[in-house]
Design goal:
Layout: E1 3-15, E2 21-33, E3 37-41, H1 48-55, E4 63-68, E5 71-72, H2 78-87, E6 89-93, H3 104-108, H4 110-114, H5 119-132, H6 148-160, E7 166-170, H7 178-193, E8 197-201, H8 205-209, E9 213-218, E10 221-227, H9 237-252, H10 261-274, H11 276-311, E11 319-324, H12 340-355, E12 367-370, E13 372-374, E14 380-385, E15 399-402, E16 404-407, E17 417-420, E18 429-431, H13 436-439, E19 448-457, E20 460-475, E21 485-488, H14 490-497, E22 507-511, H15 515-526, E23 531-532, H16 535-579, H17 581-589, H18 594-635, H19 645-671, H20 674-679
This protein binds adenosine-5'-diphosphate (ADP) and magnesium ion.
Length: about 675
């Protein structure tokens, strides 16, 4: 029989600390043949496990040579060692080391999963091997549902799945009772008889007595090596057949040394499913951050959309509005009656346009005077009267306070009309939809009202009555529509006002040829002190600054909660690595590369990210509906808009954060020393 394993002059030294070493193996030289069932015996601490770890390729830190077939383990690279563990050796441990969240089938096929073997072939091979150890009916169970003996048989099946040449069993029966011990030994013997080398560590005399060879180690040295003359080799037909059949198959399709991303995700999914509650709670934590990010996106785009769609569409972009800014609430900001101030402004604008190479000059006929006066506070008030019940008397219910008094801006067009028409120059006035409730059931169009403007200034104290003026239209002016506002033609109003004083506008409208010129003029005006644009513009600006304040606080909130989430994921993943140290050791013992371990943990952070993203979407969705309902009921508008690609932003951010926070735990897992992690209890 050929020599399958040759150990030559092997020494193993453990570093205890900086200054002390401990030599666990001294000049071990021994060879083994295939078909042998070897028992390694010796006192606890004599170096048996140390030797097993060296033979199994779990520990490559030794001197001397361990030669398996053509390969010298002392000369292999990490990658080649991984491959060696996967293909050439199978491990069986005292404490079974099955992965509890995987089914029996998945435990057995783990090594095949690491090699990216097809699902069908995996099931086929696992079933036939589980049949050999008498467990074909338990394939779907979880390890916790099996007895100790059954678990060890699963572990043997797992060790056999890749048809290794050597089976290493470190005290395989140490945790089993006598009758189960005999069952396991019978299986190990059959494996050896089928032509493999089986090396097992044991404390039991009885176990040792049935093996073909007993090697005793004491203090790291081989002290005896005896062949068992009574050992009877039997024909192990079944194992042999199975193994030969397998060999055919694997030679046809060479295994790719690769754990696929899909398998990694499947493995992590099983693990996450095993601790659903923890993961769901964590996902909800992350979801708060993702949710507030989403809310912020919906809110800021909602405000922008609202301003763009609603407010700005109410005005003609080719008309620039310049209003004098109020210095105090008790004064009315007026341009002078002679037109000196506006002429100076016009010159300034033209100079600016010229300097900035705009081919346009504002002419006198482009300027239209107007006014907009708040009549709610301050020196001017206004109200209208209408005899609603037609009894010839005006009661308090038939008086309506006006909040703003406007001249009809030239940028209002038919599109602003809710009903009626724009012809205020015909001597009529227009009102906002807010007045509908005042007039009751009937439409206000065509009704004639009495209208009073009360001016209270130190040098001018008058009430101007405008009697029997017709309501020609109802205009919708976005946010202003909620207030009772009266629009009146400038010249028409001034013809009344004229009786008392010279007319002075608060506002000028400049007609420009296009939006570019308008924007340029607006830019210039914004640099001047004491002037503002239209009410619509200032409202839009107010909304925008409100939106950016709320937006900024949401950004801060989401950044804080995302940072907290990231730390949380890091901690949970880190704990998961600690909890699964044993599992990582097992994975390495069956040939998982660093890369594979890294991939499994990264997949887990990917899944956490995905789950959190989905939870975040749900949280944000619920909050959006609530906020929408509250806003609609409180203020009548809800500036929230949801765009489909936010779904991807949310999922993307959440996955990226999770993967980044999982990087450190994943690389820690990948770097774990398999020997140490398997030793851990
Ligand atoms: P056995 O399996 O025969 O009980 P081991 O091979 O586990 O013994 O250990 C052999 C000796 O090496 C023991 O004295 C043990 O304390 C020591 N040893 C094992 N692992 C380490 C380690 N990582 N660092 C230091 N000493 C170790
Ligand atoms: Mg041991």
């Amino acid at each position: 029989m050929e020599e399958m394993l040759k150990i030559v002059n092997v020494n193993k030294v453990y570093k205890i600390n900086k200054y002390e070493n401990f030599q666990a193996l001294h000049n071990i030289t021994i060879s083994f043949k295939s078909g042998e069932l070897v028992s390694i015996v010796g006192e606890s601490g004599s170096g048996k496990s140390t030797l097993m770890n060296l033979i199994g390729g779990l520990d490559s830190d030794f001197t001397g040579n361990i030669i398996v077939g053509e390969q010298d383990l002392s000369k292999l690279t990490d990658k080649e060692l991984d491959r060696y563990r996967k293909d050439k050796v199978g491990f069986v441990f005292q404490s079974f080391n099955l992965i509890s969240h995987l089914s029996i089938l998945d435990n057995v096929t783990l090594a095949l999963t690491l090699s990216n073997v097809s699902e069908k072939e995996k099931v086929e091979r696992a079933t036939s091997i589980l049949k050999l150890v008498g467990l074909e009916s338990q394939i779907k169970k979880k390890p916790t549902q099996l007895s100790g003996g059954q678990k060890q048989r699963v572990a043997i099946a797992r060790a056999l799945i890749n048809n290794p040449d050597i089976i290493i069993a470190d005290e395989p029966t140490g945790a089993l009772d006598t009758s189960t011990t005999m069952q396991i030994l019978k299986i190990l013997k059959e494996i050896a008889d089928s032509g493999k080398l089986v090396i097992m560590v044991t404390h039991s005399e009885k176990v040792a007595s049935i093996s073909s060879r007993v090697v005793e180690i004491s203090d790291g040295r081989i002290v005896s090596d005896k062949q068992n003359t009574k050992y009877k080799k039997e024909k192990a037909k079944i194992f042999k057949e199975n193994i030969e059949k397998k060999e055919e198959k694997s030679s046809k399709k060479p295994l790719k040394q690769n754990l696929s991303y899909l398998s990694a995700i499947k493995l992590s999914f099983h693990n996450m499913w095993a601790s659903k509650t923890k993961n769901l709670l964590m996902a909800f934590g992350v979801a708060i951050g993702i949710g507030s990010l989403l809310l912020m996106l919906c809110f800021s785009s909602g405000i922008t959309d609202y301003i763009n769609n609603t407010m700005k569409s109410y005005s003609d972009p080719t008309i620039v509005t310049i209003s004098k800014q109020s210095e105090s609430i008790s004064s009315i900001p007026l341009f002078d009656a002679e037109g000196t101030e506006i002429a100076k402004l016009k010159d300034g604008i033209n100079k600016y346009l010229q300097e900035n190479d705009y081919d346009y000059e504002v002419a006198d006929e482009d300027l239209t005077p107007g006014f907009n006066i708040m009549t709610m506070l301050g020196p001017v008030s206004a109200y209208l009267e209408y005899d609603i019940n037609n009894d010839g008397e005006i009661t308090d219910d038939e008086k309506l306070n006006i909040f703003y008094l406007y001249t009809t801006p030239p940028y209002y067009s038919e599109t602003n009309l809710v009903e009626g028409d724009m012809s205020t120059s015909s001597g009529g006035v227009m009102l906002t939809p807010a007045v509908y409730s005042f007039f009751g059931e009937e439409t206000p169009i065509g009704k004639k009202i009495d209208f009073f403007v009360d001016i209270n200034l130190p040098n001018y104290d008058q009430e101007i009555p405008i009697n029997q003026v017709e309501i020609t239209g109802i205009v919708d002016t976005s946010v202003m529509s909620g207030f009772p506002i009266l629009y009146i033609d400038y010249d028409f109003f001034m013809s009344y006002y004229d009786n008392y004083s010279t007319p002075q506008p608060t506002t000028y409208y400049i007609q420009t040829p296009n939006e570019t010129i308008s924007n340029a003029i607006n830019r210039y005006i914004s640099t001047l002190e004491g002037y503002t644009g239209s009410i619509e513009e200032s409202l839009a600006n107010m909304f925008q600054s409100m939106a950016s304040t709320i937006g900024t606080s949401l950004v801060i909130l989401s950044i804080i909660s995302l940072v907290v989430s990231a730390i949380m994921i890091l901690v949970v993943m880190y704990m998961s690595v600690t909890e699964r140290t044993k599992e990582i050791g097992v994975l390495k013992s069956i040939g998982a590369r660093k890369k594979d371990i890294h991939r499994i943990f990264s997949s887990e952070s990917f899944l956490v990210g995905l789950l959190s993203g989905i939870c975040g979407l749900i949280v944000a969705g619920i909050l959006l509906v609530i906020i929408y309902i509250v806003l609609i009921n409180l203020v009548g508008i809800a500036p929230l808009s949801f765009k489909w690609y936010y779904v991807f932003i949310a999922l993307g951010v959440s996955i990226v954060i999770s993967i980044l926070s999982g990087l450190y735990p994943a690389s820690k897992a990948a770097r774990l020393d398999p020997v140490e992690s398997l030793r851990r209890e």
